[in-house]
Design goal:
Elements: H1 8-19, H2 39-45, E1 56-60, H3 61-70, H4 72-75, H5 84-92, H6 96-100, E2 107-113, E3 116-121, H7 125-134, E4 138-142, E5 145-149, E6 156-159, E7 163-167, H8 186-195, E8 200-204, E9 212-221, E10 228-236, H9 239-251, E11 264-266, E12 273-279, H10 290-294, H11 296-301
Antiparallel strand pairs: 1-2, 1-8, 2-3, 3-7, 4-5, 5-6, 6-7, 8-9, 9-10, 10-12, 11-12
Length: 306
């Protein structure tokens, strides 16, 4: 067995997990907010298909903010809400609103792709313009909004009244929905269907040289609106690969293991979907999005084909 071609997607996931956020009922680029599928599906629709080699994290920011406030012990891994600037302010003590012209309350959804981010919500573009000028950024027009650049820095920021993109890498996220998105990629759509209506999720980069072509972990809320569980959905490359992957996962569900008692299932077809679900608990490795940091299950599935 061999290691993945690149560790970049996992580095991005660790960053995203440490910074966390998303949307279940938000309006994303190209979405009118009605009849557009789940929040995760709309998030995938905002990301160009060319980003399939990157990790993608999604958070319903408004739901996550409520959960972190109500039960920080369980949901502390999501306390950055997926907003890079919020996480940064936690380390520097700065003010997101003063520095960037918006706050967490303005954001409905966050999508992180590599180390670039897309936030959707309601943004005061005048406040953003003032904050960016104070930091030395120059404004120019771009498709759907205003672009901010600063001499000597590689970061680019695009802002409209309903979306904000922070581009810190080669991944170019648009303010408006791309013609060809991850939602149009068969494997991504199948995994989204498997996860269902989640309030947080992480996709690990698509790979054609592994037993699992694509996998993601997403969280659903219980009927009480506070408890939660997470599900891993993995698209196998073949029936044989599905059996191999399921066997690895079942080792983690044995008595005494972290996921003891969880059930691993294998679906039908030539490229079956493997699923595994566990209840979140306020202990290491079992809090929502803990796999973004520990990579326990992702690391298990990241190897190339035997």
């Amino acid at each position: 067995m061999r290691l993945p071609r690149t560790s970049r997607p996992f580095t991005a996931v660790l960053l995203a997990g440490a910074l966390s956020a998303g949307a279940t009922s938000c309006s994303l680029p190209g979405d009118d907010g009605a009849g557009g599928g789940t929040g995760l599906e709309r998030a995938l629709g905002a990301v160009p298909a060319s980003a399939a080699d990157q990790a993608v994290t999604y958070r319903d920011v408004r739901t996550v903010r409520r959960l972190v406030a109500e039960d920080p012990g369980l949901y502390r891994g999501l306390d950055g809400f997926g907003i890079l600037e919020v996480a940064q302010s936690g380390y520097t003590g700065g003010s997101v609103r003063a520095d960037w012209g918006f706050g967490a309350k303005d954001v409905r959804a966050s999508v992180l792709v590599g180390d670039s981010s897309l936030l959707t919500g309601e943004f005061d573009t005048d406040a953003v313009a003032r904050a960016m000028r104070k930091q030395g950024y120059k404004a120019s027009d771009t498709d759907g909004g205003t672009r901010y650049r600063k001499r000597g820095e590689s970061g680019v920021y695009d802002v409209s009244e309903s979306a904000r993109v922070a581009r810190r890498s080669h991944v170019a996220l648009p303010l408006t929905a791309p013609d060809d998105s991850l939602r149009d990629v068969k494997a991504y759509a199948a995994v989204a269907d498997c996860l269902g209506d989640v309030y947080e999720a992480t996709y690990y980069a698509e790979r054609q040289d592994a037993d699992t072509v694509l996998f993601a972990i997403g969280g659903r809320l219980g009927k009480d609106g506070r408890s939660s569980s997470e599900t891993l959905c993995a698209r196998a490359a073949s029936k044989k690969a599905a059996a191999t992957t399921a066997a690895k996962l079942r080792e983690k569900t044995a008595p005494g293991e972290r996921y003891a008692g969880s059930e691993v299932t294998v679906g039908e077809g030539d490229t079956p979907m493997i699923t595994m679900t566990w209840k979140n608990r306020p202990e290491s490795g079992l809090r929502p999005a803990d796999n973004d940091r520990t990579s326990e299950l992702p690391g298990l599935l990241a190897w190339g084909r035997a």
